[in-house]
Write a structure and sequence with these properties.
The chain has about 200 residues and is α+β, with helices and mostly antiparallel strands. The protein has 6 helices and 12 strands. The strands form 4 sheets. Strands 2, 3, 5 and 8 form a 4-stranded antiparallel beta sheet that branches. Helix 3 (about 130-145) packs across helix 5 (about 155-170). The longest helix has 21 residues, at about 5-25.
Length: about 200
């Protein structure tokens, strides 16, 4: 056997081993991976050992945005993932400005607890699930608080939370998502309004 032939055989062996390794896909517990064949959805890989056809089958890359707290500030972390987390997740996005019925601008900080129940829908029915949930929550917040006076807003968090869950969960079901809870963490009126309220309390 010539040296050139041995090199070819070794190269072919390495190529075959590489294909076999790439064809093995281990998915962690409580995760799911969408597999596409030539750009078209083929199957969903569940937790455990899975076999795919290398080159032809590829995991779908999913755009994902999360919020990270650091130094008391929140900022976005954008990435592309292949493993969808099927556990309950927390999406804590930055506070937003909302106007009450009596035209007071306030800052509202909310957090959404959700769980992906239908991974295929979460990938193919919406382009970016976290952004969609954030936008939906912000819009619903504006609608709910826009129908309340400032005093009611400050004392009715449970009512606001219940309204948010009902509306957001109803819309998110089309994306294969179950919204378990939405909690308003903080409501911050302007400083002049706070000062006025404090003076009123002292007078009373």
């Amino acid at each position: 056997m010539t040296e050139a032939l041995m090199i070819v055989i070794a190269a072919v062996g390495v190529f075959i081993v590489t294909l076999v390794v790439k064809g093995i896909r281990i998915v962690p517990e409580q995760s799911a991976v969408m597999i596409e064949r030539l750009g078209k959805f083929r199957t969903q890989l569940d937790a455990g050992l899975n076999i795919i056809i290398p080159v032809v089958d590829k995991p779908r890359s999913i755009p994902w945005r999360a919020t990270v707290k650091e130094g008391g500030q929140k900022y976005y972390m954008v990435s592309n993932i292949t493993n969808l987390d099927l556990r309950e997740q927390v999406y804590d996005f930055p506070s937003q400005s909302v106007i009450t019925r009596d035209n007071v601008g306030i800052q509202v900080d909310a957090v959404v607890y959700f769980q992906i129940t239908h991974p295929q829908k979460a990938v193919y029915e919406i382009s970016n699930l976290p952004i969609a949930l954030e936008t939906l929550t912000q819009t619903t917040l504006r609608n709910v608080i826009g129908e309340m006076d400032l005093d009611d807003t400050l004392t009715s968090r449970e009512t606001i939370n219940a309204s948010l869950v009902e509306t957001i969960d109803g819309a998110a079901q089309a994306w294969g998502v179950k919204v378990n809870r939405v909690e308003v963490q903080d409501i911050s009126p302007p400083q002049d309004v706070l000062a006025s309220m404090e003076q009123q309390m002292k007078a009373e």
